[in-house]
Write a structure and sequence with these properties.
7-stranded mixed β-sheet, 3-stranded antiparallel β-sheet, Aspartate Aminotransferase, domain 2, Aspartate Aminotransferase, domain 1, 357 residues, 14 strands, binds pyridoxal-5'-phosphate
């Protein structure tokens, strides 16, 4: 198989053992003589996967007992609607730190009174707003902890006077999280915990059942809590791969260990961006994401952008093109991205510097 360094933003690199387990299960799921994509989800073999998945979530993130973890289809983008449907009665506040945050706010606005509390749109979402006050009359305050496109991140669990809701699509399991500070945490699996096709939602049960609007059955979190994520057919294969990915996280030492490695990888790459005169980082230093590292050619070297892209590609770098709305480069260095890939990218930047200085 061709050797590449995969920096895709999502779907993205997954742990090798998870891929291998997926291949084996596609051929023969737990000795049933059937593929994982041929089995009924109403079997004890499948239920054991579902239970293992749930308990790994609870264990790895130390989730308190008054929370439920559910898995659904529809992507994180459909969760933007779920959140507002299930929680917005009078007023909701959103922290607009990027494109995903803006999309989440838009969905809520379609259902009721949702307001932007603070935004960093004035500087192309290159920082996290800090001087804002969260009104105490909000039903909830929504944040996007990692800004996948612009490379900024809220790396701590904030104190919030109202229910705190977080889209953690692109940094879940990258660090320890104090779940008790949140009312709801959700995200798509395809950035850090599995393949596309499934979302996770960690819901504090007491926040539900407070809105007066009619909730369609499928859009009511309680349906899926009661049905243990099997009210209808669950996305069996993505959940299987997610389970294997979490087993790998556990084998690596859990989220504390992941955080340590992620920090090392990020320091290595940001260190090179700051040292190398050809490149410059785009996110405010104090808000830099340890998951998505965004950079551009430094002033005076802009004309070398395409050449560096080709140079890196030739050396096996995949997926380092910045999002179409920002340009430049973005290296996504999620949990499963090995340190050696980051080292290879750094080396590539250093070689390129030698050619052009
Ligand atoms: C990718 C992403 C989404 C959208 O996920 P889908 O599953 O494609 O809908 C939402 N929020 C964040 C932070 C993301 O990175």
């Amino acid at each position: 198989m061709k050797k590449v360094h995969n920096f895709n933003a999502g779907p993205c690199v997954l742990p090798k053992p998870a891929i291998e387990a997926a291949i084996a299960a596609l051929q023969d799921f737990k000795g049933t003589g059937m593929s994982i994509i041929e089995i009924s989800h109403r079997t004890k073999e499948w239920e054991s996967v579902m239970n293992e998945c749930r308990s790994l979530w609870k264990e790895l993130l130390n989730i308190p007992d008054n929370y439920e973890v559910i898995f659904l289809g529809g992507g994180a983008s459909l969760q933007f609607l779920y959140v507002a449907m299930n929680l917005l009665e009078n007023k909701a506040g959103y922290l607009e730190t990027g494109v995903w945050a803006k999309k989440a706010l838009k969905e809520a606005k379609g259902l009721g009174n949702a307001i932007c509390i603070a935004s960093s749109a004035d500087k192309t979402y290159s920082y996290i707003p800090k001087d804002y006050v969260i009104p105490e009359d909000l039903d909830y305050f929504h944040i996007t902890t990692n800004n996948t496109i612009y490379g900024t991140e809220i790396k701590y669990d904030m104190d919030c006077p109202v229910n705190l809701v977080a889209d953690m699509s692109s940094d879940i399991m990258s660090r320890p999280v104090d779940v008790s500070k949140y009312a709801l945490i959700y995200g798509g699996a395809q950035k850090n915990v599995g393949p596309a096709g499934v979302i996770f939602a960690i819901v504090r049960k007491d926040i539900l059942g407070k809105v007066t609007r009619h909730l369609p059955t499928m859009l009511d979190y309680r349906t899926h809590i009661d049905g243990e994520s099997m009210f209808n057919t669950p996305p069996v294969f993505p959940i299987f791969v997610m389970t294997e990915t979490l087993k790998w996280v556990k084998s690596m030492g859990g989220v504390e260990a992941m955080n340590k490695i992620n920090q090392e990888k990020a320091d290595l790459l940001y260190g090179e961006i700051d040292r190398n005169p050809l490149f410059v980082g785009t996110a405010a230093k104090e808000d830099r994401s340890i998951m998505n590292v965004c950079f551009v050619m430094a002033p005076g070297y802009e004309s070398l952008q395409d050449e560096f892209m080709a140079f890196a590609k030739e050396r096996g770098m995949v997926g380092i093109k910045g999002h179409r709305s920002v340009g430049g480069f973005r290296a996504s260095i999620y949990n499963a991205c090995p340190k050696e890939s980051v080292e290879a990218l750094v080396e590539c930047m250093q070689e390129f510097e030698k050619l052009h200085k």
